[in-house]
Automatic annotation (TrEMBL):
The lineage of its organism: Bacteria, Pseudomonadati, Pseudomonadota, Alphaproteobacteria, Hyphomicrobiales. InterPro entries: ADH-like_C (IPR013149), ADH-like_N (IPR013154), ER (IPR020843), GroES-like_sf (IPR011032), NAD(P)-bd_dom_sf (IPR036291), Zn-ADH-like_protein (IPR051397). It comes from Pyruvatibacter mobilis. Gene3D superfamilies: Medium-chain alcohol dehydrogenases, catalytic domain, NAD(P)-binding Rossmann-like Domain. GO terms for molecular function: oxidoreductase activity. Residues 8-322 form the Enoyl reductase (ER) domain. It comes from the Bacteria. It holds the Pfam family ADH_N. This is Zinc-binding dehydrogenase.
Length: 324
């Protein structure tokens, strides 16, 4: 089968090749999936660059979430059968025509979604759910400020925040992105290039945002400290800007807010029971059609490097996927 292979780490995503590799029969407790779509996520880029906390041995195939059809099951598997449509959570291996993975990492694909949509909803909406529900304790009537709102995890936070009854302020870096966010239900949109702290305070009645969802870091985090409400929760999702910010601890003291770290996957690994509840919650919303990722573009497998570069260069709105 064909697979994208990373044979050397590269800052500019150049050491990515297309190769023919063998896929063995699925082992004990495994299923074999014919992959139809694989979402491209920021951690995929970081793994290719050697910057992610999980560093797979070389060579490896990137791709951490996929959707497809089961074509074979290994010994001991009874929950799935050939022909079932599934979504699969993978650490690597999704950018290929097929993959073997533990059956426990698969779930039934939502009937309301296409393969492309199904491949791209789990990571984004799980991150948003753990952030806003488990860690941010967002309440109806509160003001939620979402940074990087046109990205996959940002757009998921906008969707979920609206469902939870919050007033959602979304920031992004272009008018095209802001227009999409407004169409998807954000109450207010702000171009982050113009600054946002004064406008956020104005929109929040002078008190600032109760919850701030920040996957960007850098200058965005610094300015967020200036427009958070008393008792607010500043959620640290990631550092897409490339700079990990610092904060003087007198600021949380004086303004009475909390800085809260969010790692959705680690949350589930440390508390498997609640982790299963989190997955069940987003799957229930997906089954009802109340959440649906925005798929900006779909690339063939041999253009996977271009798909990753588009994400790296901030050209993506919502999700970009690779379709083997």
């Amino acid at each position: 089968m064909r697979a994208v292979r990373v044979n050397a780490l590269s800052e500019d995503i150049t050491a990515v090749d297309m190769e023919e590799i063998d896929l063995p029969a699925p082992g004990e407790g495994e299923v074999q999936i014919r992959i139809r779509a694989c979402a491209v996520n920021f951690p995929d880029l970081l793994m290719v660059q050697g910057k992610y906390q999980f560093k797979p041995p070389l060579p490896f195939t990137p791709g951490m979430e996929a959707a497809g059809d089961i074509v074979a099951v290994g010994p001991g598997v009874s929950a799935f059968a050939p022909g079932d449509k599934v979504v699969a959570g993978l650490r690597t291996g999704g950018m290929a025509e097929g993959a073997n993975t533990p059956a426990a990492s698969c779930r039934a694909m939502p009937e309301a979604m296409s393969y492309e949509e199904a491949a791209g909803y789990t990571t984004a909406y799980l991150t948003a759910y753990v952030s806003l529900v488990r860690r941010g304790h967002l309440e109806a009537g509160e003001t939620l400020l979402v940074h990087g709102a046109a990205g996959g995890v940002g757009m998921a936070a906008v969707d979920l925040g609206k469902q939870m009854g919050a007033t959602v302020i979304a920031t992004a870096s272009s008018q095209e992105k802001l227009d999409v966010l407004a169409d998807r239900g954000a109450d207010h949109v702000i171009n982050v290039a113009d600054g946002f702290k004064d406008r956020v305070k104005e929109l929040a009645g002078g008190r600032g945002a109760d919850v701030i969802y920040d996957p960007v870091g850098g200058d965005v985090f610094d300015e967020s400290v200036r427009c958070i409400a008393w008792g607010g929760r500043l959620l640290v999702i990631g550092f897409a800007s490339g700079r990990i910010p610092d904060i003087s601890v007198n600021m949380p003291l004086i303004k009475g807010f909390s800085v809260v770290g969010v790692r959705a996957g680690e949350y589930g690994r440390r508390d498997p029971e609640k982790g299963a509840e989190n997955i069940a919650a987003i799957d229930a919303m997906a089954a009802k059609g109340t959440i649906r990722p925005y798929v900006y573009a779909s690339f063939p497998l041999d253009q996977a490097a271009e798909a990753m570069c588009q994400l790296r260069d901030r050209r993506v709105i919502g999700k970009v996927v690779v379709t083997p």
